[in-house]
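Entry 14. Ran structure prediction on the chain below.
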Amino acid sequence: MNPVTLLPFIVLIGAMFLMTRSAKNKQRQAQQMRNDMHPGTGVRTIGGMYATVKEVHDETVLLEVAPGVHAIYAKNAVGAVLEDDEYNRIVHGIDPDEDVDAADTPVVPDDASSLTEAADAGDGDSSADKADAADETDEKAGKTDVKKIDLGKDDAAADATTASTSEDEKRDGGTDAK
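Output, structure tokens:
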């Protein structure tokens, strides 16, 4: 037999050997990870749910998925055992690397009043005094100074009646032709 004809078979067998070896290695690592679980450990299931391990049995684990809510999962359903720092960062939003001092954190105001205080200080009048003065002038003005604004509603109503009249004439046999 020619060695050139055997070469594809040898390459195929070698590739299968390497693939099965890496798959077995991954399975062994996953089994070791699942065996390292103990109560209090944070885990992520293969469905993407984060939980805390409460009890570990031979084939199952009891997970606390929310405070007071427990569920039994198969060990194979645990996708990853997380370190405490990573679990707290993901679930609780606590970043252990972040050391924030209160003096370094910028203060964000709830409203815009602190932004306008500097402008108000130069005028001598407070914004409350200005608002009171505006309210008094509105009360003095009353309803006597209110002018009606013509919105053209009467003209639109008249146009609508003439349009409906011309449509009635068309139904009766009239035309627009002149």
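Residues 113-162 form one domain. Will compare against last week's run tomorrow.
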